[in-house]
């Protein structure tokens, strides 16, 4: 049994990844401040375990704490060594992710995302842990001309959030070079994760009005909001609405397991990998698929473009497929079905 440290493990992507790792028999230490999540997610993970006759309670240690606090991180590494279960690797999800908030309050983002990450890397270095999978984002590419974004597409973040992700990647690169290339690092650049675990027990839990398309659609369908506003009908795309590369969160979770396996089995390296499906879906296509699959109405109207939006973001995911021997298995219908199941079973999230 290997022990992994998961920062931000109570969040949307973190919780699904924890579940995939638990299924593989790993021990997890989760640190989360719960600034954007609920500790109740752990009970749900245990419940999924029970349904499958597993006792994940024995595999998880949860620490409510902030990665900006170096002393907490230090104690986690020392305790794991004392218990003779040293931390073999880290998946680093902890971070703030709201683009608009990052424009309004950049210091919050630089401090939480970058300072928090530096603390984590310092603790890893001090206790000889040099395997890390980092949650990066397709947002770092900005608005390039290419139809499919490759890992070597020009990086040009358009907001402070994107810059924090790019900066953390740069810090990891510097660590890799300075360590005599001893570290094993995977920067996973996620495209648009949506959907939920098929059990309907864990899913995305925006604490405020959702900014993102998919959770907003779910709430309109649930009649929390009257209608969806589609931001722009005059983009230069086939139906005038923006195109994104949506990926099922469970496929994304599995990409993390594959990345950890790859790093453990291979020589030190630093990888940048696009984690998407390579398939573009317009906002209108998403609304129509959701309605059709779930047999539910999603009223919408067109509104002005949202500032900072770009018309099309689709992954060239060939490098990830080849390197990780992983591929996304769940299609848009499944994303819509599973996301809706989570919504109707948990209209108040984890409360
Ligand atoms: P999330 O907000 O659901 O999860 C992030 C978790 O980190 C939360 O549980 C939060 O409480 C915790 N956290 C934040 N700051 C912390 C700190 N200083 N110390 C301890 N815990 C802290 O978000 P998510 O959608 O699961 O995203 C996970 C990661 O993936 C984030 O780093 C995000 O930037 C990145 N990402 C997300 C998307 C997306 O569309 N969801 C896309 C690209 C990249
Ligand atoms: N959209 C609407 N109405 C809404 C919400 C969104 O029309 O109420 C549209 C947006 O204009 C965009 C598309 O739906 O065209 C997708 O928007 P999201 O906010 O769901 O996703 P983004 O691609 O804008 O951004 C997301 C995350 C970022 C991350 C990026 C990675 O919010 O943090 O994906 O590609 F960096």
UniProtKB/TrEMBL annotation:
Gene Ontology MF, one: UDP-glucose 4-epimerase activity
Domain NAD(P)-binding: 5-338
GO biological process, one term: galactose metabolic process
Reaction catalyzed: UDP-alpha-D-glucose = UDP-alpha-D-galactose
Required cofactor names: NAD(+)
CDD domains: UDP_G4E_1_SDR_e
Keyword NAD: yes
Keywords per UniProt: Carbohydrate metabolism, Isomerase, NAD
GO CC, any one term: cytosol
Enzyme class: isomerase
Pathway(s) it belongs to: Carbohydrate metabolism; galactose metabolism
Pfam families, per database record: GDP_Man_Dehyd (PF16363)
Record family assignment: Belongs to the NAD(P)-dependent epimerase/dehydratase family.
Cross-referenced NCBIfam families: galE
Subunit structure: Homodimer.
Name of the protein in its database record: UDP-glucose 4-epimerase
Encoding gene, per UniProt annotation: galE
């Amino acid at each position: 049994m290997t022990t992994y440290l998961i920062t931000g493990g109570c969040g949307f992507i973190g919780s699904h990844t924890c579940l995939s790792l638990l299924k593989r028999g790993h021990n997890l230490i989760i640190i989360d401040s719960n600034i954007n999540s609920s500790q109740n997610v752990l009970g749900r993970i245990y419940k999924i375990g029970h349904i499958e006759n597993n006792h994940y309670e024995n595999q998880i240690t949860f620490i409510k704490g902030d990665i900006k606090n170096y002393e907490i991180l230090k104690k986690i590494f020392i305790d794991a060594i004392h218990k003779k279960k040293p931390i073999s690797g880290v998946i680093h999800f902890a971070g703030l992710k709201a683009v608009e908030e990052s424009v309004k309050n950049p210091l919050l983002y630089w401090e939480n995302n970058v300072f928090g990450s530096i603390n984590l890397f310092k603790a890893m270095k001090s206790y000889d842990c040099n395997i890390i999978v980092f949650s990066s984002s397709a947002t770092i590419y900005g608005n390039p001309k290419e139809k499919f974004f490759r890992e070597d597409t020009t990086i040009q973040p358009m907001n402070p959030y994107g810059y924090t992700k790019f900066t953390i990647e740069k810090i990891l690169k510097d660590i890799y070079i300075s360590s005599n290339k001893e570290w094993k690092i995977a920067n996973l650049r996620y495209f648009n994760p949506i959907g939920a675990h098929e059990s309907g027990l864990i899913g995305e839990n925006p604490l405020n009005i959702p900014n993102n398309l998919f959770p907003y659609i779910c709430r309109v369908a649930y009649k929390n909001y009257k209608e969806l506003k589609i931001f722009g009908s005059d983009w230069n795309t086939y139906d005038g609405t923006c195109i994104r590369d949506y990926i099922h969160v469970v496929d994304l979770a599995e990409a993390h397991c594959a990345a950890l396996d790859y790093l453990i089995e291979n020589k030190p390296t630093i990888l940048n990998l696009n984690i998407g499906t390579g398939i573009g879906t317009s906002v209108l296509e998403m609304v129509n698929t959701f309605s059709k699959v779930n047999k539910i109405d999603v009223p919408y109207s067109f509104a002005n473009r949202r500032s900072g939006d770009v018309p099309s973001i689709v992954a060239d995911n060939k490098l990830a497929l080849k390197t990780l021997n992983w591929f996304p298995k769940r299609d848009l219908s499944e994303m819509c079905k599973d996301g809706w199941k989570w919504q109707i079973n948990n209209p108040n999230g984890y409360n």
